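In response to reviewer comment 3 from the previous cycle, which asked for concrete evidence that the modeling workflow produces usable outputs, we include below a single protein chain processed end to end. The sequence was submitted unchanged, and the resulting structure tokens are shown without manual editing.
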Amino acid sequence: MRADVLVVGGGLGGVAAALAAARAGRSVILTEEFDWLGGQLTSQAVPPDEHSWIEQFGATASYRALRTGIRDYYRRHYPLTERSRAWTDLNPGAGWVSRVCHEPRVAVAVIEQMLAPFLGSGRLTVLQPYRPVAAETDGDRVVGVTVAHRDRDERIDLVAPYILDATETGELLPLTGTEYVTGFESQADTGEPSAPAEAQPMNMQAVSVCFALDHVDGDHTIERPANYDFWRDYKPDFWGDRLLSWRSPHPRTLEIVERSFTPNPDDDPLAVNADQRLNPGDGNLWTFRRIAARRNFTDGAYDSDITLVNWPMIDYFEGPVIDVPNASWHLSKARELSYSVLYWMQTEAPRPDGGTGFPGLRLRGDVTGSRDGLAQAPYIRESRRIRAEYTVVEQDLSLAVRGEHGAVAYPDSIGVGMYRIDLHPSTGGDNYIDVGSCPFEIPLGALIPQRVENLLPAGKNIGTTHITNGSYRLHPVEWNVGEVAGLLADFCLARGESPRAVRGTPRLLADFQDRLSAAGVEMRWPQVAGY
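The workflow returned the following structure tokens.
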């Protein structure tokens, strides 16, 4: 099959890339391994992590359309109370992590609506569920990619002049021979204050297998996991308690803190102020990533709130899942950990009344669209990352380094983002690294491989370091990167120029930035302070 633009990976970056290229008039093929498009927002079941100003600025117009579409979908199809329906910044889950916590399948529906006109016209072809298994190259160009069906013996060769890697782990980089890095870079290489003395390529952030829960009458205890005893007794050196407990290090201070867990509090959804600048929101784990607040809906519509478990105790950091022969084994262990956390909560977790266990906790695989009850896909925080023309380093955006000067202003900025440098415990035994950040820009140089000419990163695989990936890996930035990659492919096809030439030629760069501005891509921040 042939197209103008091939997008491999249907996460948020892949969807944004396909949408941008199709809107520009290009024929597009989009592939995705899992049953739902949307990646971390849907198949990985992670509500959006966003900055404090997201309702006003700091995201592309199309990302805003996605958020507005989610709210409108609830208003059209869900039995909201009149008070919640009138809530301009409707937060369906009234979670503290985001101003628009919601059920994953709603984002799936809105993404499908956004893509529908291009599917109908035939401009966009979606191949699902397919994963990349091989690639053909010719010198410094990628000719095509072979994808295999997940469930049956079927392969398709895909050819396009521009190929975008929007996979969660940068799968096309080793397949195409594109130079890349993994894990920690050394301080000698990057100059980063938080980097180690020597590079640690196998030291990567934890992965998590998320799941959804409600709390209703009855005993919904799952079967005891086979290795439950191991996980119940497991106590990482830096954790301060067993992993399966309400106690864990505070990401910003590393002080051992105890979080509360109160299912179905009778709180007012409209009183939730989901602003992580003011409050991280994880004091009560139930409301932290709640995706359906029953008080937002008419009486009886929901028997319980629904909460999304992406909490400290499900972080799996026993081994990396990239560039290792036993990746599938580690992923199975990550799923086992998630089941063990649930079983512990149902049977042994301390309750506020002095008792133990919450047998009313019910696994909601229908919410995550999976047969086994967990998210369809693991939440991958850290990808392979291209060796780029420009690599974003900690001192570009660290609040401690930059202070009142703000993040580095890049002449080739192609977007903006904001999130603390937020690294979860890693496979090398490191604790959290959580560093204040300035509102930052995304440089075009981070999207251009040092050698390969027509392969573009469209997700978490851009030119960041292990450390700055902690800021650039979140939902709005991934979408921004993907959208720009799609628009860059179109621009290069129209002008007969390479991505490298666009960055290196002032006239072309200015024209491309004008094109981005016309598409609703913000490239500079107003004057706001970091946190």
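The two ends are 47 Å apart (CA to CA). We consider this sufficient to address the reviewer's concern, and the full set will be provided in the supplementary archive.
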